[in-house]
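Structure first, sequence second, as always.
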């Protein structure tokens, strides 16, 4: 399957292809940046740098991922950097969306299988083949963490996204077992946990964890990403399209796939919206839900011009949860429309 097909299907690229793409992305980004700032100073890359520092220190991380921010792609790129950097940190990535709505025993056994991947490859199973109750689930996770601590050839990280799809009781047990492990090994920890969830999961916490919000690409990052995917052109030529996306990773990926296949992007707003396909329909659906509430609809109209306004939490929080707003923390806490593309969808 080609890079274009992966993007069209909304699937993450294979690790090697992603690594090659990221190398080209960094080269293009540097050439686009007249000040030649390091790529870590960019919006999304800066978050990645902060998370890498925490994980290499064996400190847990909670990532809050706004809608359409592609957290799995972020974790896979993060894993490549952690494995190839120094000190090396082995990584296991997983997404929990596929077990949404499953019976609790199925969820328990799936999570146990995930934790089993932390152990050395040649280790025999040390837990029952099937977990049937909550007590057995906790016991199995403890054994897996102990086994990974003792046998893993190098420190290992579990990077899990879409935690909002887990039953709350299963998530609580998983976090509590890891916290027990962490408190038992304050100085010699060899396993670390990252959990990513949507902005709605305010209850997603790990004791002692650094909490970060997964930011969108900067305009420079978005343009360089599109150019890197297509292996042609320059980031500067794509800056206007990057500005239209607002750096929202889901939109950037869609335009990247089209640019890679056709070598060009439409010059009209309607043409760009057409490329979004089902993603555009999903974004329109989010806007339509907001439009049903007069106060939220009025607030959205006030933000249509693209300017930042002082935050009004009562109306801005639902808009932020819907993926339509972003926070501008300086000089004072303000909000703005997340992307010009959203204004275009509003007509």
């Amino acid at each position: 399957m080609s890079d274009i097909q992966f993007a069209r299907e909304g699937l993450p690229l294979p690790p090697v292809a992603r690594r090659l793409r990221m190398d080209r992305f960094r080269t293009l980004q540097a050439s686009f940046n007249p000040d030649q700032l390091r790529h870590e100073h960019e919006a999304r890359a800066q978050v990645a740098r902060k998370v890498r520092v925490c994980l290499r220190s064996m400190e847990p991380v909670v990532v809050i991922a706004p809608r359409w921010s592609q957290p799995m792609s972020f974790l896979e790129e993060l894993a490549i950097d952690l494995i190839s950097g120094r000190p090396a940190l082995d990584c296991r990535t997983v997404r929990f969306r596929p077990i949404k709505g499953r019976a609790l025993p199925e969820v328990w056994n799936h999570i146990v299988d995930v934790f089993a991947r932390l152990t050395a490859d040649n280790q025999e199973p040390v837990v029952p083949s099937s977990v049937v109750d909550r007590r057995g689930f906790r016991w199995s996770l403890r054994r897996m963490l102990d086994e990974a601590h003792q046998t893993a050839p190098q420190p290992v990280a579990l990077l899990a996204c879409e935690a909002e799809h887990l039953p709350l009781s299963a998530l609580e047990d998983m976090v509590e077992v890891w916290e027990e492990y962490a408190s038992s090994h304050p100085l010699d920890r060899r396993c670390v946990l990252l959990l990513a969830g949507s902005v709605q999961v305010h209850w997603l916490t790990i004791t002692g964890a650094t909490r970060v919000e997964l930011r969108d690409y900067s305009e420079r990052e978005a343009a360089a990403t599109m150019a890197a995917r297509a292996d042609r052109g320059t980031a500067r030529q794509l800056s206007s399209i990057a500005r239209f996306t607002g750096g929202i990773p889901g939109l950037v990926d869609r335009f990247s796939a089209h640019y890679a296949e056709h070598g060009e992007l439409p010059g009209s707003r309607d043409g760009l919206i057409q490329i979004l396909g089902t993603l555009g329909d999903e974004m329109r659906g989010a806007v339509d839900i907001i439009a049903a509430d007069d106060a939220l609809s009025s607030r959205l109209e006030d933000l249509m011009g693209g300017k930042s306004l002082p935050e009004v939490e009562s109306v801005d929080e639902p808009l932020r949860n819907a993926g339509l707003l972003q926070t501008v923390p300086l000089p004072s806490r303000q909000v703005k429309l997340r992307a010009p593309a959203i204004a275009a969808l509003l007509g």
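Margin note: Residues 15-32 form the longest helix (18 residues).
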